[in-house]
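Summarise this fold before class:
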Amino acid sequence: MDNPAGQAKATQSFPKTKRVIRGGDFQIILRQGACAADNCLVVFAVAQSHQATSAAAHGKRLGVTIPKKTGNAVARNRWKRLIRESFRTQQDKVPEGYDFIVRPKKGARPTWKTIQRSIPKLTQKAVRRLG
């Protein structure tokens, strides 16, 4: 059966191949990546290496890190859901070929509107800072 709604869902999915999962990848991005921030989020970016063996090579990947100082588990999970959903729905506005780590700014409150506005702006700003 042809299901146009199912096809749209598949193109807007957010599989594990589009996520930064390994701790070593997080360390590389946080240490070597360029940083951009606003009053809500901090974004680190690094170009993907040509030796990458994952299926997401030459695409874009997202990692989310939420410090425990941000709040309890409910608050941290809310941040993660909002950041991932914003990244997923705005993939066309995010530069290709880069890995990103996103974390909330200290003292910020998670609102959908500010996260939606911040993700594309900060990812592009961080990529420009890479050179």
In short: Residues 82 and 111 are 8 Å apart (CA to CA). Strands lie at 34-37, 41-47, 60-64, 98-104. The longest helix spans residues 112-130. Residues 16-130 form a domain with the Ribosomal Protein S5; domain 2 fold (CATH 3.30.230.10).
